């Protein structure tokens, strides 16, 4: 048996062993909140799980998938750059320009902007607290 075959067999055995140990010893506490969908900026209310979902999360996921595919397509060029000639460079540059134009178009259309319903404007309360503590520290020095 070659060392590579032994290594692959060993990795498979370790992976299955860890999965079985996880199933045996991990705590199992199912409750409704674990089955609800969670995304940043998406509030799920009782009774609305799985019924309504913002389409912008789906578009954002598709864009992520497209850019992952871009990396997959550009990687072979980066690995074999010593063998590529000017033709290969031109093809990759055209591909990158097309991907960049598509990304700029998505940004211009606002496809990647996800509106949050959460109130995260804590800056006024933090600034007032900092200013008050700064004034108190400086007033004791006078």
Q: How many separate helices?
A: 4
CATH classification, class level:
Mainly Alpha
Which structural class matches the secondary elements? mainly alpha
The arrangement of helices and strands along the chain is: HHHH
Poorly predicted runs of 5 or more residues: none
Strand content: under 5%
CATH topology: Methane Monooxygenase Hydroxylase, Chain G, domain 1
Helix content: 55-70%
Tally of discrete structural domains: 1
Q: Which architecture would the CATH scheme give at its second level?
A: Up-down Bundle
Mean pLDDT: 76
What is the distance, rounded to the nearest whole angstrom, between the alpha carbons of the first and last residues?
83 Å
Subcellular location: Mitochondrion membrane
Membrane topology: Multi-pass membrane protein
Keywords: Electron transport, Membrane, Mitochondrion, NAD, Oxidoreductase, Respiratory chain, Translocase, Transmembrane, Transmembrane helix, Transport, Ubiquinone
Pfam family, one: Oxidored_q4
Provide tags for this entry.
Methane Monooxygenase Hydroxylase, Chain G, domain 1; 4 helices; mainly alpha; 142 residues; 64% helix
Can you characterise this structure?
The longest helix is centred in the middle third of the chain and has 25 residues, at about 55-80. By secondary structure, the chain is an all-alpha fold. The termini are far apart. The mean pLDDT is about 75. The protein has helices at about 5-25, 55-80, 85-110, 125-140. The chain has a single domain, classed as Methane Monooxygenase Hydroxylase, Chain G, domain 1. Helix 2 (about 55-80) packs antiparallel against helix 3. It is a multi-pass membrane protein. It catalyses: a ubiquinone + NADH + 5 H(+)(in) = a ubiquinol + NAD(+) + 4 H(+)(out). InterPro entries: NADH_UbQ/plastoQ_OxRdtase_su3, NDAH_ubi_oxred_su3_sf. GO terms for molecular function: NADH dehydrogenase (ubiquinone) activity; oxidoreductase activity. Belongs to the complex I subunit 3 family.
């Amino acid at each position: 048996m070659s060392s590579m075959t032994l290594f692959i067999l060993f990795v498979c055995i370790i992976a299955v062993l860890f999965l079985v140990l996880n199933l045996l010893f991990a705590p199992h506490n199912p409750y409704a909140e674990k089955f609800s969908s969670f995304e940043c900026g998406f509030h799920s209310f009782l009774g609305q799980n799985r019924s309504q979902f913002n389409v912008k999360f789906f578009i954002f996921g598709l864009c992520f998938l497209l850019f992952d595919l871009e990396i997959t397509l550009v990687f072979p060029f980066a690995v074999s750059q010593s063998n590529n000639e000017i033709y290969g460079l031109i093809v990759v540059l055209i591909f990158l320009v097309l991907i960049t134009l598509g990304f700029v178009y998505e940004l211009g259309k606002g496809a990647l902007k996800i509106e949050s319903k959460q109130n995260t404007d804590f800056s006024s309360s933090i600034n007032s607290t900092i200013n008050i503590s700064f004034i108190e520290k400086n007033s004791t020095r006078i």
